[in-house]
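Collaboration report, partner site 2.

Our partner group contributed sequences for two proteins of shared interest, and the home lab folded both. The records are reproduced in the order in which they were received, starting with the first partner submission.
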Amino acid sequence: MEEQSEDALLVRATGRTFDIAGAHLVWKARAEETGGNFCFFEQTLSPGEGVPPHRHSYTEVFYVLAGTLRFRDHAGQTFSCSVGQTVIASPEVAHSFYNDGPELVRLLSIAPAAHQTFFDAVEKADQIAPFAGISPFEAMTRVGMIGAETDTRFEQASDLA
């Protein structure tokens, strides 16, 4: 990871990767680098990949960098979002997103530092008992349990597979 720091500026070419339980992220700014104010990452979704319905107590902002992504809100309404579009998920509003197109999707996710707590807990759980080698349903069940403890509450278990 190439980093340059000049007083209060941090210039980074890459970031720490997270590739666990079907989530593919590169951290662009972690909470410890923002004074605990926010975190943000770039996420990639291959065709057919997505994030099941979930909610948390804070706002999350998404910005589509490449491809077209389908978002679903708490009422089941879907929105097709493409390059340059922003989606804002308000606190406690269930939301999900998935790539139902033929191309790789890249997006940014920006949220308060609390969001990083969930991903750090999943990463720690993976170090103790790796997600690799278990079924997608088992992996998402574990992720759901971790989320329940870290303010990322997934909807029904049937939505997790």
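Second partner submission, folded after the first:
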Amino acid sequence: MCKFFTTLFLITGVMVIPAFGQNGYILSISGPEVVCPGSTHSYTPVWEYAGSPASPPAGGIVNWTVYSGTVYTSGSTYALIGWSAGDGFILYEYTANGTYYYATLNVTINCVASLTTSPDITPEDRDLCDPGPRLATSTEVDQPVIGSR
């Protein structure tokens, strides 16, 4: 298992640290890891059992904890989080039948870094930090010819 995560890190450059609960479950959090201050994003817990997608154990109690952000709404399958300044952190906790499961996710809050340092950012991703409509420059607008008839 360690070799798998080492290989994953070398291939993607992203360190994924799943939390191992008891009874064979693996729990992680899915959602953006680089966000802009003032933005809001959805995060979901991802459950696996024996390497396959799974549902969490029945009858669990959920708790979402966020640093450098605010949980606007949440449930057992999602959290809508608004981010402020400084790097953030999400902790998802789930307790069922006396067994405690948890997952964490570090979140970098830096709009400029998300636009300039990641080669994987596409034009569709950039609108997360778009300050608004761009003004046209004089070279982009047809200039009227003054004094022509």
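Feedback sent to the partner group on the second submission included the following. The first helix runs from residue 2 to 12. Strands lie at 19-20, 25-30, 34-35, 40-49, 52-53, 61-67, 69-74, 79-83, 88-96, 99-109.
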